[in-house]
Amino acid sequence: MIRLSLVKDAIMDQKIEFSCIVIGIVALAATLLAEEAWPLVFVPIAICGLPIIWGAIVGVVKEHDITADVLVSVAIVASVIIGEYDAAAEIAIIMQIGGFLEEATVNHANASIMRLVGLKPATARVVKNGSETIVPVEEVMLGDTVRIIPGEVVPVDGVVISGATSVNNSILTGESVPRDVTVGDRVSSGTVNMYGSVDIEVDRVGDDTTIARMARIIENADAGKSRVVRTADRWAVYIVIIAFTVAVLSYIAFQDIYRSVTVLVVFCPCALILATPTAIMAAAGNMSKRGILVKDGGAVERMASVDTLLMDKTGTLTTGNIVCHGFTSTDAGIDAEDLERFVSALESRSEHPLGRAITSAHEGELDEVSGFSYIPGRGVSGTVDGKVVIAGNEGLMRDMCPANLDETVSAADRARADGYTVVLAGVDGRTVGFAVLSDTLKRNSVETVAGLRALGLKTVMLTGDNRHVARRMADTLGMDDVVWECLPEDKLRTVMSLEGSASTCMVGDGINDAPSLKRADVGIAMGGIGNEMATENADIVFVDDDISKIGGVVRLSRRTLLTIRAGITFSIVLNSVAMVMAVFGLMGPIAGALVHNIGSVIVIIMAALLLRYDCWGSPDTAPGVPGAPASPA
Length: 633
Fold this sequence. Notes:
Layout: H1 2-33, H2 42-63, H3 68-81, H4 85-104, H5 112-118, E1 123-128, E2 131-136, E3 145-148, E4 157-162, E5 165-168, H6 170-173, E6 179-181, E7 186-187, E8 192-193, E9 198-204, H7 210-223, H8 231-254, H9 257-266, H10 270-288, E10 292-294, H11 297-303, E11 308-312, E12 323-329, H12 336-347, H13 353-361, E13 369-375, E14 379-384, E15 387-392, H14 394-400, H15 405-417, E16 421-427, E17 430-438, H16 445-454, E18 458-462, H17 467-477, E19 481-483, H18 488-497, E20 504-508, H19 514-519, E21 522-525, H20 532-537, E22 540-542, H21 549-583, H22 589-608
Parallel strand pairs: 11-18, 11-20, 18-19, 20-21, 21-22
Antiparallel strand pairs: 1-2, 1-3, 3-9, 4-7, 4-9, 5-6, 5-8, 10-22, 12-17, 13-14, 14-15, 15-16, 16-17
């Protein structure tokens, strides 16, 4: 609730700021058009200038932080002292516009932790003395037995004491393949029970559950994230020192306080402060036309300095859709074609993702199945064309098809070592082969990784998959490095380990990526219409899943930073020339304010060119990259 109130306050503050700018412009225009309306000049000074002055005082006194606002404040006060009220009003309005543009690029709506907590069920099925009672999840105690039926989200952490099922673990690991669990296996809160009913003994409740720890990780990730000081403020200290030094020397040399005050006015960094927000706004507009939303304007500036790109595998580099590459037969009495026909027919009755992938890959009509049975967490069985067909894991085969099992497992292990997932198959009590499956790469993944490396970025893949799958995918993609079997904590730990030695960008699409998206210097969420947890913790959001746009974001960010630096350089040169003219009495405050306006317009024009900057390249019409290498089958 605190976070939501802060969001509302931020939005209200921005509306008030915009209203002050409009009122200030109207009041200043009235004073310029009608001499008798001169008292209105104090309106923009009060509503636009005083907040800047107060903020500068607080920054210096409480935080010992000298920013460009210090010199702006001095310029406003100095203009008022020498009676140049129009100049003071112009400076105040221009500075307020710059601040508003900067804030306009920032999305304050970050209710991620509230949503994460909402993923946990409000109730749990507690089993006591053989009877089942639904109670609030807060009342579940350590050691209680909780029953989880198919389709339910696991409310607490615990160990399975009866039953077997398959659990969708993607919220934690991003793995596209459900994990089979049986007695003795752990299950975590926030995961989804897909098929069988299981009873678990609770060993973690409340703040100790996995989903609660995820919320804390996300919150701590933001608290510990290093902040990049905006470019204008990095120059501010030097500008303040130079301006005051020249003003003092000017007074010593000419004994003219009016001339010294004019120096402070003309050296006010209006164009310098506008250089960053206008360039970022233009870059954000360019990206938005291509389905890329910039939530944090500072991320564009930070992205230009990124040298290490960390990328989630499932849903980012791969589609997350399992495909079957074929069957391998380990029995001379049955060939791969017949094995595929039997298992595809059997799996047509299954709702398991692996089963659906096997059936989808089969061409032709499916045989009739009788006596179909689903064994939760183990596999399926049934009769096809008069034969008893079994498909599942090694434990199921050992119980129902022990003959030829070891030879088949040995062959399957070689496929697993190459990074594939296998489903063992048996016919009439004998294990006779296996299906070979894998995740599929997105169409442009290989080209995108190559392009990012060509830009000088180190690419690292993070995945919850096992070492063999991770290595195969990383080698196929051409990644520089890979980290496998990652939980959210592991991904966050990887990002933190690079702090100080590298500037990082994390690219992901799932809840398990949220902490690292928030902690990295820049977080990019793929598929903004999908997982809200990822998008709320990212700085930049891709509305679609087109990974090829990442290279364009990098190039546009680098061009934006170049434009910002060019604008700042121009501003410094312009102010320096104006300052020299002010020292020798060749320019007064009104002329100085005019120079500020001209400089600001030129800086805005330079930034506006980013709106039409083409860094995306021509659409890729080449055939898609195969999802995986040819099956060993």
